[in-house]
Design brief:
The chain is of the alpha+beta class. It is built from five helices and four strands. The protein folds into two domains: 96 residues; 51 residues, no CATH class. The mean pLDDT is 91.
């Protein structure tokens, strides 16, 4: 079985991307250990929690939880690289679905329209991959309170 982790990236007015990383369940424990090891290698003098979650955008820019690393560019780059190396070691299958902002969607300014359009593009790709591999998957995503019901409807629509 695969665990498929979803994450989004967007810039209002420009683009919306939904990415998925399919990791075989046998590789998940090693991936988690690799991510934890990347965090543990951040010098304790920066005062970050040992269980800080690696959010690429925040780490890359030295924001939010990674604000103490704002001036420590080398540490941020090393941590980012180590996180990516842990992901690569897990042998992921990566999927991307992009939507141009205002790409003929009914509500041009709503983030949810773009999220749902990308979901509709991504689900068939994930399903095809799983069918080819003879495996099932469990999709894991952050809960987005503004579109939870709509995302569930898109998944159900795809299943039928």
């Amino acid at each position: 079985m695969f665990l498929v982790y979803l994450d989004e990236s967007y810039q209002r007015g420009h683009h919306y991307w939904l990415a998925a990383s399919a990791i075989h369940d046998e590789e998940v424990a090693e991936l988690c250990a690799g991510i934890r090891a990347a965090v543990r290698r951040i010098p304790s003098s920066f005062g970050l929690s040992e269980d800080v979650e690696l959010h690429a955008h925040q780490l890359y820019h030295g924001e939010k939880d990674f604000l103490p690393l704002k001036e420590a560019v080398r540490v941020r780059k090393q941590t980012y690289r180590r996180g990516l190396e842990a992901l690569c070691a897990a042998g992921p299958r990566l999927f991307f679905a992009g939507v141009h902002w205002n790409d003929g969607l009914p509500t041009k300014q709503r983030l949810s329209s773009h999220r749902l359009a990308a979901m509709r593009r991504l689900l068939p790709e994930i399903e095809s991959f799983c069918e080819d591999a003879g495996e099932r998957c469990l999709i894991v995503a952050d809960e987005e309170e503004t579109t939870t019901e709509e995302v569930v409807a898109v998944v159900r629509e795809h299943q039928t």
